[in-house]
Write a structure and sequence with these properties.
2 domains, globular, alpha/beta, Rossmann fold, 6 strands, DNA polymerase, domain 1, homodimer, 10 helices
Chain lengths: 232, 232
Amino acid sequence: MAPNTSSLRTDRPAVLFDLDGTLLDSVYQHVLAWKEALESAGIPLSIWRIHRRIGMSGGLFVRALVRETGRELTAGEADRLRKLHEEAYGRRVREVKPLPGAQRLLEVLTDLGVPWAIATSSSDVTAAASLTMLDVPRDVPVITRDKVAYAKPNPDLFLAAAEALGRAITDSFVVGDSVWDMLAAQRAQALGIGVLSGGYGREELETAGAYRSYDDPLDLLEHLDELGIRTR
Amino acid sequence: MAPNTSSLRTDRPAVLFDLDGTLLDSVYQHVLAWKEALESAGIPLSIWRIHRRIGMSGGLFVRALVRETGRELTAGEADRLRKLHEEAYGRRVREVKPLPGAQRLLEVLTDLGVPWAIATSSSDVTAAASLTMLDVPRDVPVITRDKVAYAKPNPDLFLAAAEALGRAITDSFVVGDSVWDMLAAQRAQALGIGVLSGGYGREELETAGAYRSYDDPLDLLEHLDELGIRTR
């Protein structure tokens, strides 16, 4: 029997967006905020190692940190570290801006009737400021790490985002700047679209499974046809 | 006739080091210093695009910038931008530290009788503070962009460094964190050794021609045998 494809609008797949480094130029501020938090806790760690962990779940981040510095952290210390990071990021958030094309891309998708959502490893608090910056309409699903059991590279955030849109995850694209987004996309059985705007290289994203990669949201907007999304 | 290899000590190749991101954890400070300089000149540019240009010659950096922002800069504006960057970096230099293993690696090479030198796209002024931080002995050749016609990815800096050591460039390794180091190494006919400590990915460095890559100076030190350098 042929599969029933009559209800599928393959030209209107769901699009599930990561936030930091994907829609906002905020990765480097997060990196230096973590550096500041770690220094003030007396934990030395090279900055590039922090960069390579951005976007993954805070719990895993701290665990990887323990491994890389050979230092044990109590649950209390880990919590304090996350709080220090949140404060340090708060002091830098004024410098953060949407990436080129981010708002326009979201508007175009809305106009085309392409359902989209946000799925971020950030907390509700940190995400709130970002959503204001992007003028995200109130009816857009926003899945933060406060809403799921496990953040990236586990698939939960993206699975919940697709569900909130009422779409199959296999009929969704995941757009993200980090290896953790691409790995989570694979685990969720979605195709991952990489953007370079978080400072990972194209080869890194493709090695992690990116189906396609673009410079930033503007570059993605200019190539929507490559995703089979028909613009009018 | 067999080539004369009697004078070659292939276990003691020359090693030509880049500075920022290779021996010092300074790339992210340079990136944000450029961001600050560009903002104050009214030029918007995503931070990852700045990161991807760090380590290349300042002249080429500004040229690439013009291309990416579609904005023309006069020679005077370009000079002012470089000056703004130098000042903004100066305000951050207190945060900069040597990378793990950097000083020890240089000491071990010296003890082994492996000749080494520094070759950086930075100016004399910016490099001076870095050399103090690393306790670089005064008799080590330091080639800055003030000493050659063209900085990286042109081969001049590395060619001059090998010459200053009295060694053939083909008997030298280039150690660097950026694509521009690896491209310059290829042009110079040296083998490039990539380090990830500047925030480029391993795949990016290998695509640009890295013969081998390591996490940082400490990781390189622990694998000197892979370069055929016999430690005692």
